[in-house]
Amino acid sequence: MGAPVSDEQFRAEIRGWLREALTGPFAEAVGTGGEGREHEAHELRREWERHLGRAGWIGLSWPTEYGGRPATLAQQVIFHEEYARAGAPGRLGHMSEQLLGPTLLAFGTPEQKARFLPRITSGEDIWCQGYSEPGAGSDLAGVRTRAERRGDHYVITGQKVWTSLAHLADWCFVLCRTDPGSTRHAGLSYLLVPMNQPGVTVRPITQLTGTSEFNEVFFDEAVAAVEHRVGAEGEGWKVAMGTLGFERGVSTLGQQIGFRRRLDAVIARARSNGAWQEPALRDRLVDAYIGLEVMRHSAVRLLASAGEGLSGLEASISKLQWATWNRSLGELAVDVEGAGALLTGPGYELDDAQTHFLFSRANTIYGGSNEIQRNIIAERLLGLPR
Amino acid sequence: MTGTPEDLAEIRASVAEVLDGQADLRRTHEVMVGERGYDPLLHELLTAELGLLGLVVPEHLGGLGLDVPAATAVIEELGARLVPGALATSLTAILAARALGPSAEPLLARVVDEQLTLAVALAEDGAGWDLGQTATRATGAGDEWALTGTKTVVPGAEAARVVLVTARNEGGELGVYAVDRAADGVDVRTHMTLDQTRRLSTVRLREAAATRVDAPGGDGARVLLDHVRAMLALESAAAARACLDLTVDYLKVREQFGRPIGSFQALKHRCADLAVAVAGARATADHLVTTLRTGAATRSHDAALAKLVCADTLMTVAAEAIQLHGGIGFTFEHHAHLFFKRGKSAQLLAGSAAAVRAEVAALAGL
Ligand SMILES: Cc1cc2nc3c(=O)[nH]c(=O)nc-3n(C[C@H](O)[C@H](O)[C@H](O)COP(=O)(O)OP(=O)(O)OC[C@H]3O[C@@H](n4cnc5c(N)ncnc54)[C@H](O)[C@@H]3O)c2cc1C
Fold this sequence. Notes:
The complex is a heterodimer. Chain A is α+β, with helices and mostly antiparallel strands. Chain A has helices at residues 7-23, 42-54, 73-85, 94-107, 110-121, 236-247, 256-273, 279-306, 312-337, 352-359, 370-381, and strands spanning 127-130, 146-150, 153-164, 171-177, 188-194, 200-205, 214-225, 229-230. Chain B has helices at 5-22, 25-33, 40-49, 68-80, 87-100, 105-114, 220-253, 265-294, 299-325, 336-348, 353-363; strands at residues 118-121, 137-141, 144-155, 162-169, 174-180, 186-191, 200-212, 255-256, 259-260. The N and C termini of chain B lie far apart (43 Å).
């Protein structure tokens, strides 16, 4: 696996592997666990993470000593494209791989890398992100969860909220305040906290879809080892911002194929139920297609100029584009259905159009809301005064 | 010059330098209200001295033989400054002629030899930009043709020496023909226009002598239409960027309530949305340039889509520019309205939004 391969070889390899895996033991997992479907097939998807890991598909571009495999930025995009094309299951490991992994690679000690990264690339550990709190959302510097140092460990007390997959995760990367007198960006630290311990309580929050993928997490004298602090004590803000940069990174470039599948499904539905004949709906469908083309060409441009990574600015533009686009496609999906979209299963089970319609409201909130992205673009790209 | 990225950057920079000196927005303002509506001296400078007409004409025909992006870079630089006249249409016609193959070589040779500027005439009353309804007739054969018909809203004709015209021969086949503006039977009437930076003409042809530019059996008329759309897209993408820049610059210096108005979040967010739109337009325009350069089969689709996206983006940015400037933005003296009017002409020329959207849908197989 060490030798560099061409993009075509890479595509053929991942495509072939996915085909085989998803017709065999994981056939049932196809299409599960996507956005708004995080509650589905947990056991199978956990097993799927390990299967992906064993085949070497987690940790693309990471050093091989941690179980990674060499891959260019273009190949990472290809992976995400083929993954979506195959309808492979929603990743339980996306925060592990896309948020924590790059953070450890950038800021972790050799011991932390050696301990945690191989368990991510093998699909063993699932991580969740403990940033947001009741009082700290867009303004993350308002974090109040406290961590007090006692010898070789920290004792953590406080509350996180909207913590995706906390009910399934083995570990949580937590931003908390280690300096009790501090305010704002100073005095924060980035701790790696095991979820399976007495001081951690996870309470699922029911979302407007009727299902739960995010949770409240209560820390009541929970414990984290000092050696599991990433970055220096009090430097947690810098580390956390690094993670946010990764959050808006490469996977969004690979989303194109998944979006196209959704759009094609909506158009196919419009053609079969007559909605396509309604000029107003047809215009919106064609505009959605045009919007997707704009994103596709933007992604190509980004890739051409990005080298090995994306700047936060480019990522802000692409986040604003896709989140807004996907949210309108969700509206369009139910409009195309017509009044039939108002009927759900007996337990509020939702079909694809309904799920898309409801869950896509989150797209413009998480990972930096649309308003926050606009602030970033206005101040850092256009240089408008604060 | 071999057409490396460095060469391209150099061409763009040298054209930009000349235009900044001779054809900035202030100059456009003066020129557009003049009788001719364009600046003949600038035309002379850019053609005779900078040799822009020969830029992408193959070497064996007397040109510099550079590739498509050299010409599109110039169209963008002209577009960013809303430069009136027939330079953009000339480069557009030259790019289309290149794409038409050997049959267009005599025209390209003439372009360099005689330093010909060109206009492109497709629309007709009744037909609009629907090629299928073209009623202008071509009679004759081989090299000798006579055209009869009326072309409307023709850009570039006020300053061009040759007009490329779509017409239908006796067999009903559409083709592209070149007519000398000075020939007998050619009557060009140039109108005052809503978009003062782009004069439009009615071209009446009565048995006007013409040569055929495309090869029989091809899709020459479509090639020409696609290139006109490309011109509008490239100009619009560049103009949208320029208009956003001048607006953002203003928001940084204009103060109200004791602070720069650009610090008000309501305005910031609108600028951010415009920046996203401008980036999207740029991406579609760049993709179209690649398509034209590689001769990809998606040309009609990509040109239609880019013209729609870029013209709409310019319109949005320019409308916001007026609003965000306040009273000064409503004055004739300010530049904002030039972009606003340019945006409207880009939207309405070469097919309405509804028609182009329907074309995109059909070409994409939706
Ligand atoms: C489905 C989902 C999953 C999530 N998963 C996680 C997770 O795993 N881990 C985690 O830590 N967090 C997670 N979040 C939380 C998410 O990051 C926050 O919801 C987000 O940062 C917004 O914070 P908030 O909810 O407190 O809203 P607020 O910050 O209170 O925002 C409320 C409104 O005010 C606007 N606003 C706020 N500040 C400004 C400003 N300066 N200028 C203009 N407008 C402003 C916002 O855009 C928004 O419209 C998740 C959220 C969702 C919806």
